[in-house]
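User: Predict structure, ligand cytidine-5'-monophosphate.
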Amino acid sequence: MKRVLLIIGGGIAAYKSLELIRRLRERDVAVRVVMTEAAQRFITPLAAGAIAGERVFTDLFDQAQEFDVGHIRLARECDLVVVAPATADFMAKAAHGLANDLASAVLLATARPILFAPAMNPQMWANAATRRNLETLQARGLSFVGPNEGEMAESGERGVGRMAEPEQIRDAVFAALSDGPLKGKRALVTAGPTIEAIDPVRFLSNRSSGKQGYAIAAALAQLGADVTLVSGPTNLSAPVGVKRVNVESAREMLAASEAALPLDVAVMVAAVADWRPMKAAKGKIKKDAAGIPAIALQENPDILATLSKLGKKRPKLVIGFAAETDHVEEHARAKIAKKGCDWIVANDVSGDVMGGAENTVILITKDKAEAWPRMAKEGVARKLAVEIAAVLDAKSPGRK
Ligand code: C5P
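Assistant: Predicted complex:
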């Protein structure tokens, strides 16, 4: 049985943590609860303990509690630490390594993976101090789920700051605890646009949002894969359990992709700029220097083709995306041949796919072309991850 240590912080979203305990227990995850003092202003240890089926821990300086279990044992006797709700204050304490109450001491003492589900007022979430703390914690390898956009419970304000729903946190917990079908497999996903410098302030780029690639990275991680997401600039946060490498240009994306080798699967979803300026000017090109400048372009490296043609180091499965408006299957088959990849996920981009929430795709492999119904990008991602798992499982020696 997997064991989660749930730290409940002091926010109104604490009431949703009771539901989270129930959702985890109904899937056979044991939950031990630590509550901060502020959390006890919102919900009682009695309620949390009744749902968890265990006593709740609240006090670092309670002799009986420390004698009985102690903060070091709490920190060790679990597979994952979850902080929900993670308040702005708790994030700040964690970022600085403070340990002046039981919850923060446990967090500092644990060597287990940690998942935060932040909840706070949108202004507090957007504040530069919180952003910095978030970056610090992410850089330290902590995972985050949410916050989501929506209405705040206290003020009725809208914005990003609502704690993720209990089911969403439960899914993130399972991703973090995962021993799914892709456990031990190494995956690369490229996502988002690339930007190609004209000079230090100007660049060429495109409208890719990165949504489909991020959803695929998340879905692969949920099945247990060890995922590297090489991403051009986007507004998205890294999915739970995924290692993100930020890049700007196609050449940086290629280098970061090669650095992720060896790989079992590579899914190239990025909208890589086809061309870049021949030469990025060192200084800002002056507006009135010599009239309108001509920007000569040169071809960018093709990351998908490069990885497909690696020889011995080639990932077992290489998947490309193709945006098509007509003769989708024919063009996609030509692309498989030209690039040397195994599959193409062809999207019909005649609608509002770029930046939109849904996608209509055809999965084209050497021996099939399967049109999937229009669905959310997360749905496409999950279905693709399942197809990938089926193939990699069959390719693994010694497994049926
Ligand atoms: O050739 P085209 O741009 O249509 O191919 C799209 C596919 O190739 C996508 O999977 C995209 O991520 C990948 N690609 C790449 N490097 C490039 C251009 C495209 O990896 N320079």
